[in-house]
Design a protein that fits this description.
By secondary structure, this protein is α+β, with helices and mostly antiparallel strands. The protein has one domain (about 5-170). The chain is about 20% helix and about 40% strand. The protein has three helices and twelve strands, in the order βββββββββαβββαα. It has helices at about 95-110, 155-170, 185-205, and strands spanning about 5-10, 10-15, 20-30, 35, 40-45, 60, 65-70, 80, 85-95, 115-125, 135-140, 145. Strands 1, 4, 5, 6, 7, 10, 11 and 12 form an eight-stranded mixed beta sheet that branches. A four-stranded antiparallel beta sheet has the order 2-3-9-8.
Length: about 200
C-alpha cells in the first residue's frame, strides 16, 4: 500500500501582482538534486515527475491543514508548472485573516519555506553504492503547503518503501540442502513423461 510522504520545498518570496494583491512564489521541488533522507538513503526527483499530477486539482494550504486554504489550481489562484529547474508555484494570497497573517509572517521572515505531500507512483532504487539511492520518476500531489517548520518528515514511510523494494528484488536463495529441495510427486513425474511421450509421437507422424 502506497503511503503519503512529506518533503521540504524551498525558499518562498512575495511580490505584488497586477490586481494590487500579493503573490507568493517559489519552487516546491527541485529536479536532480540528491538529498539525504536521514541516514537511510539519498533521494532525487526526476524531471517530469509532476507533469501529470499538476493537471489535476491541487491546493495550497498553510501547515498542511485542509481548513487553511490559500489557493487552488481549479480556481486559478494557484498556478503550478514544471521547468528545467523544478516544480514552480505561484499563489495569490487571499485577503482573509489567514492570508494577511501568512503575508505578514513571510514579510517579517518568520516563515520562509514550504512543503508538499506526495505519493510515489513510479520510482527506481539503486542499492549498489555506500547508501541506497531513490529516484522519484512519477508522483501524485493534491496539495503544497506554506509551513512554519519546513522539514523532511515521515522518514518511517520512506524507509518502509525501501524495505518493500528490497524484499521484492531479493535474490532467490540457492538450495544447498537436498532435504530442503522441493518434493516432486510420483504422479507429477508420470504426467510429465506422458506429455513428453505424446510430443515425440506427434512429431514422428
Amino acid at each position: 500500500m502506497t503511503s503519503v510522504e512529506k518533503r521540504t520545498a524551498h525558499k518562498i518570496e512575495l511580490r505584488a501582482n497586477e490586481s494590487g494583491g500579493t503573490t507568493l512564489e517559489g519552487y516546491a521541488a527541485v529536479f536532480n538534486s540528491p538529498t539525504g533522507i536521514g541516514d537511510y538513503f539519498v533521494e532525487q526527483i526526476a524531471p517530469g515527475a509532476f507533469a501529470d499530477t499538476i493537471k489535476g486539482d491541487v491546493r495550497c494550504l498553510f501547515n498542511h491543514q485542509s481548513g487553511n486554504v490559500l489557493g487552488r489550481t481549479k480556481s486559478g489562484t494557484l498556478r503550478l508548472s514544471e521547468d528545467a529547474h523544478g516544480l514552480r508555484f505561484e499563489v495569490d494570497i487571499p485577503n482573509t485573516t489567514l492570508g494577511n497573517d501568512v503575508r505578514t509572517l513571510v514579510e517579517r521572515g518568520d516563515i520562509s519555506g514550504c512543503s508538499f505531500d506526495f505519493l510515489a507512483v513510479k520510482q527506481t532504487w539503486d542499492d549498489t553504492g555506500d547508501m541506497p539511492s531513490r529516484t522519484l520518476q512519477k508522483v501524485e500531489i493534491n496539495e503544497i503547503s506554506i509551513v512554519t517548520f519546513p522539514a523532511y518528515t515521515d522518514t518511517t514511510v520512506a524507509v518502509r518503501s525501501l524495505d518493500e523494494w528490497r524484499s521484492a528484488n531479493a535474490p532467490t536463495p540457492e538450495i544447498t540442502d537436498p532435504a530442503a529441495a522441493p518434493v516432486i510427486r510420483a504422479d507429477a513425474i508420470k504426467a510429465r513423461l506422458k506429455m513428453d511421450l505424446d510430443i515425440k509421437v506427434r512429431s514422428t507422424r
